[in-house]
């Protein structure tokens, strides 16, 4: 159960975990089998090419957010400007087709993407079931974390609450304890793995508790059921109990999990982890980055913009002419059209596409979805004519809020928490491999404007 207890007591929870342990150690053991070969591959590659230049850096890139500078390794996912994200080489449609589903379901289980990101292998249905069982068995939220969430004023943003809860969980970090005991750094990945599993197991409990405290009666919608998958348990705790919403959560939590290593949440987690901070502290940093309006808050910005559109025009069924005029007024007012464009992608985000396909199947007549589809037809042409957007196509944020609203999860301030629960999968998988490969402390070189001018002047001479 993803509740404050699995069944009725912590002792029974421990008994459940011991009963599963002989079966569920296989994922950790499989990662252990893969590590030596990967370490050897990287050593051979570095020894042969350590002085090979792989790119150049311009002044504009230095001032422009380090866009397109190749400067870190993330083994778990790679973002292609034309194809979108690939999870260990698999596109979203490929992952949707290959990863195990819940009985009677059609969307991939996030437990499967966790296995894929860690191993590069598609798990069996039984292996995914074992991951679900392990996460359920380890889901008890420490009492001091639960008490802290309950003590939060309702004026505290749900992302601030989640970040604080994750930070506080580090009080029983296996990784921090192992480091303090002087465990060999080659073995630290095992403790990063253990913390990561505990965090993934507990995160939906904390997130659901925050939701129920802020927007409902303070009681979880259900306790964790060891027979349900991670997404279905999360849905029950939030208070939703329909097969369609379960499927939406499986899709949402899978496709938001990773977007290579350079985005704010992934890189923040990676950077803080490189200081050998434990996974709790590292991912809390990632959550704080995700909470920014230029990152994880974007989906609620889309809904606010669409609401303003509806209020100004007076209907969810505007004409194409009315919509085009509203778009141009937005752009001429110095504002952006939220949900469109991406720092890397140069085509429609595949994460948008799979959500659109979900909507076409489950809610084709939803007024908000129909408006979103109309925007999809019109916005790219307007942005292209405007001429200031490299990518006029929709990203993942253009659609996710529409789906959540349809199923009556309407509290927009909470949407980034859902994003955070999903993003933990990718950030923590990368963190485990970073410790397994013993990546060093990150410390890029910075310059002042004056020192940079001197460098440029020296090159010009």
TrEMBL record:
Keywords: Transferase. One of its GO terms (biological process) is tricarboxylic acid cycle. The active site is at 295, 342, 397. GO terms for molecular function: acyltransferase activity, acyl groups converted into alkyl on transfer. Pfam families: Citrate_synt (PF00285). GO terms for cellular component: mitochondrial matrix. PANTHER family: CITRATE SYNTHASE (PTHR11739), CITRATE SYNTHASE, MITOCHONDRIAL (PTHR11739:SF8). Belongs to the citrate synthase family. This is Citrate synthase. It comes from Fonticula alba (Slime mold).
């Amino acid at each position: 159960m993803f509740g404050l207890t699995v069944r009725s007591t912590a002792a029974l929870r421990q008994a459940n975990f011991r009963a599963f342990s002989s079966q569920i150690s296989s994922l950790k053991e499989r990662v252990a089998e893969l590590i030596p070969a990967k370490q050897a591959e990287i050593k051979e590659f570095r020894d042969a090419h350590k002085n090979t230049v792989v790119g150049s850096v311009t002044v504009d890139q230095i001032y422009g957010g380090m866009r397109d500078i190749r400067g870190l390794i993330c083994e778990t996912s790679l973002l292609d400007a034309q194809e979108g994200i690939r999870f260990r080489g698999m596109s979203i449609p490929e992952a949707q087709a290959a990863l195990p589903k819940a009985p009677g379901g059609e969307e991939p289980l996030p437990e499967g993407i966790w296995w894929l990101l860690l191993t590069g292998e598609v798990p069996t249905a039984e292996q995914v079931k074992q991951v679900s069982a392990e996460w359920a068995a380890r889901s008890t939220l420490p009492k001091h974390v639960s008490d802290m969430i309950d003590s939060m004023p309702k004026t505290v943003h749900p992302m601030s609450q989640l970040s604080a809860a994750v930070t506080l969980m580090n009080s029983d970090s296996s990784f921090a304890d192992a480091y303090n005991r002087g465990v060999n750094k080659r073995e630290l990945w095992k403790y990063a793995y253990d913390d990561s599993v505990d965090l993934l197991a507990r995160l939906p409990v904390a997130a659901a508790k925050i939701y129920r405290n802020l927007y409902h009666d303070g009681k979880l919608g259900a306790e964790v059921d060891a027979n349900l998958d991670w997404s279905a348990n999360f849905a029950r705790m939030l208070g939703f109990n329909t097969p369609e919403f379960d499927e939406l959560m499986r899709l949402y939590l899978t496709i938001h999990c990773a977007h290579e290593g350079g985005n704010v949440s992934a890189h923040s987690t990676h950077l803080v982890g490189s200081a050998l901070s434990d996974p709790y502290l590292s991912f809390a940093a990632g959550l704080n980055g995700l909470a920014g309006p230029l990152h994880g808050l974007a989906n609620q910005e889309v809904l606010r913009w669409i609401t303003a559109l509806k209020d100004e025009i007076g209907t969810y069924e505007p004409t194409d002419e009315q919509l085009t005029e509203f778009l141009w007024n937005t752009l001429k007012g110095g504002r952006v059209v939220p949900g469109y464009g991406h720092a890397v992608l140069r085509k429609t985000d595949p994460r948008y596409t799979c959500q659109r396909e979900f909507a076409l199947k489950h809610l084709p007549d939803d007024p908000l979805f129909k408006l979103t589809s109309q925007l999809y037809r019109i916005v790219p042409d307007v942005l292209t004519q405007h001429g200031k957007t490299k990518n006029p196509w929709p990203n993942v944020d253009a659609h996710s809020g529409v789906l959540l609203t349809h199923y009556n999860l309407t509290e927009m301030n909470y949407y980034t928490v859902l994003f955070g629960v999903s993003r933990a999968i990718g950030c923590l998988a990368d963190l485990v491999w970073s410790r397994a490969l013993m990546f060093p402390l990150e410390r890029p070189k910075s310059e002042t404007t004056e020192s940079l001018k001197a460098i440029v002047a020296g090159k010009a001479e």
